[in-house]
Amino acid sequence: MTPLKDTKVTAQSTVTLICDLDPGEPKASIKWYKESRELYEGKKHSMSLSGQKAKLEISQADLSDSAIYRIEADNRHGRVMSEAKVFVQGNISHILLLSAVSEAVLLSAASINLFVFFS
What is the pTM of this model? Predict the structure, then answer.
């Protein structure tokens, strides 16, 4: 199995993680994880295995998609895995939105916790 590569993308883009692996005989079961939670096919996540290329695509990535992702392939002969970090960066519109929210909170005397990631 070739290692997954750490990836940095801008919010609202698609994240693609790819690794080459030999599915073996009997054919290995392939699973993808975000941190320790197994991922399933859906609107957000697309998974495929074509020949020896395993691929995970994360559509319209947002800041909450920043995490460690792992692929595991296992059959009766054993298990192999690889991990990669995904960093999703906000863009200027996110900063402006946070600024507007911050001003609105100050005007209404309410409180809010804002987490801002810089790179």
Answer: 0.75
Report how far Cα 21 is from the mean position of its chain's Cα atoms. Answer: 20
In DSSP notation, the chain reads -PPP--EEEETTS-EEEEEE---TTTTPEEEEEETTEEP-SSSSEEEEEETTEEEEEETT--GGG-EEEEEEEEETTEEEEEEEEEEEE--HHHHHHHHHHHHHHHHHT----------
The ranges assigned to domains in the chain are 7-90
d(CA 75, CA 12): 36
**Position 102 pLDDT exceeds 60:** no
Q: Which CATH architecture has domain 7-90?
A: Sandwich (2.60)
